[in-house]
Amino acid sequence: MNKPVIAVRNLTKRYKGAGKAAVDSISFSVGEGEFFAFLGPNGAGKTTTISILTTTLSKTSGELHIAGFDVDTQARQVREEIGIIFQQPSLDENLSAEENIRFHACLYGMCGYRPSFKLMPQAYRKKVLELADMVGLADVLGKPVKKLSGGMQRKLEIIRSLIHTPRVLFLDEPTQGLDAVSRRGLWDYINTVRRQYGTTVFLTTHYIDEAENTDTVCVVNHGKIVFMNSPDEMKRNLLKQELIIDADDRQALKAELSALNLSITANGRIIVPFQGRTAQELIAQIKTPLSVLKIHDPSLEDAYVELLQKTESGNITGNAKCQI
User: What domains appear along the chain, each with residue ranges and CATH number?
Assistant: First the structure.
C-alpha cells in the first residue's frame, strides 16, 4: 500500500451532554492517490469525522495526520494540503466565477491580490485557464456566479478547491441536488483530476453507486467502523451472484433443478445461486428450455443495505477487523 496521506488512530468525538460518542475510537488510513469512500447513514458520524479532518471541529481524543502534519498542532499546514467541496454551496454569488477562485488563491497564499484577472501573476492565470478548460468553464469565468447553473457552480467549486494543488480533496456529498447528466459530468471531471494530478480523494455520499469505482469503502454506523475493504470484497462477502430463470414448463424446470441438487428459491421467480460455479457451468447443466434467463450481479448499494441491516440486527459489530 502507498504511504498514508491520511492517518487516523483511535479518533473519538463526544459532544457535551451526549449519551454516547458520535465517533467511537475509529482508525483508518488512506494512501497517496487513493480514492476512499466514507459511507454511512445519517447520524453515523460521517460529518463529524470529515469536520475534524478538515480542521473545522476539534476531537475529544485520538491521533490524526494529513500529509504528515498533525491536525491539532499544525492545522494551518493541514489546510494548505487539502481542498474541500462542501455539501452546501459556498460560493459568493455576487462575484464572478474567476473572482471566487482569485480570493481563494490569495487566502491560500498563492499570490497577492490584484484587482483584475489580467493583473494576476502568470502562474495563477495559467492554472485557472488549465482547470477551467478541463471542466468546461473557460467561457464563463467572467460571469457572475448567480447566473451559472447548479452544475456549473459545482464545477467552479472543483476549480476553486484545486487551484492550490492540494494533495487531498475532500468531497462532502458533491453531487447533491444535481441532475443525472450533471452528476455524471462532474465525476468525469473529478476522475480526470485524479489521473492528471494524482490527488487523493476522500468522498462522503448518499449516492452509493458513486463509490462503485473507489479503491476502498469504509462504512460507519453508530460512530463505529463496520466494514472497510474494496467494493468488490464488500459485495462478495455480503451477497452472491445469482441466475434468475424460468420456463414455460416450470414444473419440469423445478424437478430438473432438484435432481441436479441446485438450490432454488421460488418467490414469483426461480433463483439459482452461483455457489462457486460460473453462469455458463450452471446453464450447461439445465436441459429444460428456458423462457427467462438473467444474471443478477449485486450492486454496491445492495451490499451496503445488507450490511446496515446486519449491523442493526447485531450480526456485525463495529471497529472489528472489518470481517463479515
Answer: 4-234 (3.40.50.300), 240-296 (3.30.70)
